[in-house]
Amino acid sequence: MYLGIDSSTQSLSGMVLDPASGRIVCEASVNFGADLPQYGAPSGFIPGGASGEVHADPLMWLEALDEMLSRLGKQVDLSAIKAIGGSGQQHGSVYLNASFIPRLVSLRAESDLRSQLQDGLSRATSPIWMDTSTSAQCAEMAAAVGGNAEVCRLTGSIAIERFTGSQIRKFYQIDAASYAQTERVHLVSSFICSVLAGTHAPIDFGDGAGMNLMNLAERQWDHAMLDATAPSLGEKLPALAQAGTAVGRIAAYFIERYGFSNNCQVGVFTGDNPASLVGMGATAPGQVVISLGTSDTFFAGMNAAHTDPRGFGHVFGNPASGYMCLVCFRNGSLAREALRDQYQLDWSAFESNAMAQTPVGNDGNVMLPFFGPEITPRRDFSAPVRRGTAEFESGENSAAQVRALLEGQFLNMKRHTDWIGIAADRILLTGGASRNDGIAQVAADVFGAPVERLAIANSAALGAAILAAVTDGGSMADLQSTFCQTSAGSLLPPQSSADYATTMSKFVDLLES
Ligand code: XUL
User: What CATH number is associated with residue 98?
Assistant: First the structure.
């Protein structure tokens, strides 16, 4: 059996799978807000940060790891786990001093991770991906290497606030003494992996690309970017490696405390989005994942590492091989909910009514579907922008408004992912809103590709478990065909009337006007 661990923003979960029987054996999850209220982080981060700062307590992640393993151990004999794989929320960073490794190798099974490792931190809290406080550092880093186009060419993304490089630079600027005390900077993924393996684990090419520090073509730390970030940073970063390659055997603490076998391997962890790409069965180019959440994300496998000329999208290493893209849209469910509430609708209006009452292309009525600031494209919207008939522009006809919002969201997504240069053969829709057939149909129509939904919701943990099996010699393609099944009846082909060429040009005109 194989264990996948996903350390995400709101919870830490584990999934055990058995490739021989093709079954998911069991799952356990620790929700930071509900299960560990003593950290004062109801949504997994410390609320009330100043000037866009969003941090979390890494000790909370350690306590959650202990708790998750103890819950899992009640359901399954952990000595049967042959390898562990994992994923973490991307971009978040953990700062460790020189005592961390001595503490790690002398962990006693009678005590817990939190109390034995807490003095190994050189920074009490970890900035996470929701942090937007580092615009000044991003500008400084870009200027140091000759501009954002160069940062993007080198690392796959322009300098981005949530990416780890600017966060490290800010730490160095505000607390140079603690930065100097930092022996190693880990990502959330490589931190949890290090604890399990009892040694400094590498960062993988997927999560490593989310730092603005890795040279995408060479898959090595980029010296120009390191120099632009903070002194001696190259000495403080772990090695880089492919996800799912072996780090080593599990540390004695876990053998003694939870009954793991001393032959259990720990594989290199990756970021939650690259892990989801694996868990959705979408690592091959032509497969596209659209995750509909608070924010919407689009990710897909790519053969080559070309980057987004507009600078909104990101390119990461793909845990299977090659590369993947990731593009985030801030106005996801927030916008869908705002429109729903404004017109006092329920989700069934999005499911069927609005779709039945309006034609594909919405009679030429288009909407820029942004209720607040957007990151793709980066612009400070405060309300949607409408163009069409006088009735539509004045906000009447809720069915036309719903269709315009959904078409606008997917047109914006299609427009800002065109640089990948691969047409979608199949769209895998996931996230809360993906179950809604009305929303799914618009995605199929706008992209001109069939939409499917997966049977399993937790694709990051599944991807992590598949990577565990890969560490032990399993074939990723075989594992994906066993575990990444679409749910019955979830396939929606595009409608024959769907032709969005004219609507797309109207949308782009409005966007650029
Ligand atoms: C991706 C991103 C988030 C985090 C948290 O760039 O910031 O998706 O990985 O899930």
Answer: 3.30.420.40
Report CA(91)–ligand 1 centroid distance (Å). Answer: 7
Distance CA 303, CA 286 (A): 10
Give tens-digit pLDDT for 389-422.
Answer: 999 999 999 999 999 999 999 999 999 999 999 9
pLDDT in tens, 266-321: 999 999 999 999 999 999 999 999 999 889 999 999 988 899 999 999 999 999 99
Structure tokens at 257: 């405390």
pLDDT tens sequence across 210-232:
999 999 999 999 999 999 999 99
Residue with CA at minimum distance from ligand 1 atom 1: 90
Residues lining ligand 1, Cβ inside 6 A: 9, 89-91, 129, 162, 210, 271-273, 297, 326, 328
Pocket residue to mutate for ligand 1, from 10, 12, 91, most atoms within 8 A of Cβ: 91
Output the CA 325–ligand 1 centroid distance in Å. 13
Predicted TM-score of the model (pTM): 0.95
Q: Same structural domain for residues 250 and 333?
A: no
Ligand 1 midpoint to CA 415 (Å): 21
Residue 154 alpha carbon to ligand 1 centre in Å: 20
Q: Which numbered atom of ligand 1 lies nearest the CA of 271? A: 9
**Residue-by-residue DSSP string for 297-328:** EEEEEESS----TTS--EEEE-SSSSEEEEEE
Based on the fold, state whether residues 366 and 505 are members of the same structural domain. yes
Please report which confidence band the pLDDT of residue 432 belongs to, taking 50, 70 and 90 as the band edges. Answer: confident
Cβ 192 vs Cβ 243: under 8 Å: no
Domain ranges, residue 208: 2-134+184-221+238-268
Q: Is the pLDDT of residue 260 over 90?
A: yes
Residue 273 CA to ligand 1 centre (angstroms)? 7
3-state SS assignment for residue 98: coil
Asked whether 298 and 304 are in contact (CB, 8 A), the reply is no
Say which DSSP state 37 is in: G
Residues whose CB falls within 8 Å of the CB of residue 360, separated by 6 or more in sequence, listed in order: 445, 495, 497, 498, 499, 500
pLDDT for 454-506, tens place per residue? 888 899 999 999 999 999 999 999 999 999 999 888 899 999 888 999 999 99
What's residue 353's pLDDT? Answer: 77
Domain count, the chain: 2
CB-CB contact of 271 with 87 (8 Å):
yes
- For residue 252, the CA-to-ligand 1 centroid distance in Å is 32
Closest approach atom of ligand 1 to CA 162: 7
Mutate to test the pocket of ligand 1, among 128, 161, 273, 290 (most ligand atoms within 8 A of CB): 273
* Nearest residue (CA) to ligand 1, atom 6: 90
